[in-house]
Write a structure and sequence with these properties.
Radius of gyration: 24 Å
Number of domains: 1
Oligomer: single chain
Length: 340
């Protein structure tokens, strides 16, 4: 029954997402939602390495810039078709993530986080200073929009960009669900619960952590490639660590280690900040306390808190049913003393 309810919930979300552009009042709202989908893809990757594997990666935002600049450089400088550059963006992010993972995952806890923070800053400096490749502070302009695939066309209208981002988000969610529910996903969670436990189960720590890191930054690279195709202009600020902390906020609000958490957190934070735009520079005065209250009262995030509540409720119902079944059983008849 719970499986059917879960599938029904995802189906309703899919229908709502498909119908959203039809009811959106203007193209700006559609563009905001499509960009929220792009950031959700990146948040899914961060959730894999941080929420499911327990490794707090602070270089995740820089890998978004790696994917975006791969598309920007290949399409504008070398005139590579967009979709070939798109695939190569994921490959470049994964390859770079492999080498960074081998170096950084030998460290544990906050040492790993500090090391990845330094890696993110190094990537930011490379993008800003390597002017012959990235155009430095000027950035990359004139990135072509995604070309059509067969009869499907991705023109520059907000609706077309929206459905493109939605398609990749749906694919990313499906792949992530397959990963976390597989034996590989259970290996990730065993590493999260403790290195000694994982080793006792015969899990190779370095190989498992590196694979999780590579998969997570691949999501970031794909998100960056979509970002480049939608915005069509890149600047070094895309590699700023601010974006990493934004992604952390999205996953914390939604719920670390949950499949729906990054999606819900990204959409909620995006639309709350949009709703507070009328406050201009003072919007953080309102948003900050709201975020702090959410973390205090829902430390496991919205989805995580709901899942824990549902688990406690199911356990309570199970205990009540066991107690009722025990009480309904007749007491065994006392054996008469045959020697009386």
């Amino acid at each position: 029954m719970s499986f059917l309810k879960e599938r029904l919930g995802w189906a309703l979300l899919a229908v709502a997402a498909l119908l959203f552009p039809l009811f959106a009042p203007n193209g700006y709202i559609i563009s905001v939602m499509s960009m929220a989908f792009v950031w959700t893809i990146a948040a899914l990757g961060l959730n894999l390495i941080t929420g499911y594997t327990g490794q707090f990666n602070l270089a995740h935002g820089a890998f978004i810039a790696v994917g975006a600049y791969t598309v920007g450089i290949l399409t504008t400088t070398y005139h590579v078709p967009f979709w070939i550059a798109f695939v190569l963006a994921g490959v470049v992010a994964a390859a770079l993530g492999f080498f960074v993972g081998i170096l950084s995952l030998r460290l544990k806890g906050h040492y790993f986080s500090i090391f990845t923070l330094c890696i993110g800053y190094i990537l930011y400096l490379l993008i800003e200073k390597w002017e012959s490749l990235t155009n430095g502070p000027v950035g990359i302009m004139g990135i072509p929009a995604p070309t059509g695939i067969g009869p499907i066309r991705f023109d520059e209208t907000p609706a077309a960009q929206y459905y493109l981002a939605l398609a990749f988000l749906a694919l990313g969610l499906w792949i992530m669900a397959r990963i976390v529910r597989s034996l590989l996903g259970r290996s990730f969670m065993a590493v999260r619960n403790g290195d000694l436990l994982a080793e006792a189960l015969g899990i190779s720590l370095m190989r498992t952590k590196t694979l999780s890191f590579v998969l997570s930054v691949t999501y970031a690279g794909i998100a960056g490639a979509l970002y480049a195709g939608q915005v069509r202009f890149l600047a070094p600020d895309l590699a700023n660590t601010v974006h990493t902390f934004d992604l952390i906020m999205f996953t914390l609000v939604g719920g670390l280690g949950t499949l729906l958490g990054p999606l819900l957190g990204t959409l909620l934070v995006t639309w709350v900040t949009q709703g507070l735009q009328f406050l201009q520079d003072f919007r953080m005065v309102v948003f900050g306390p709201l975020l702090i209250a959410l973390i205090i009262f829902l430390p496991d995030g919205i989805v995580g808190t709901w899942l824990k509540y549902r688990a406690r409720r199911a356990a309570a119902l199970d205990s009540a049913q066991r107690a009722a079944a025990t009480a309904s059983q007749p007491e065994p008849a006392r054996k008469e003393d045959s020697h009386a």
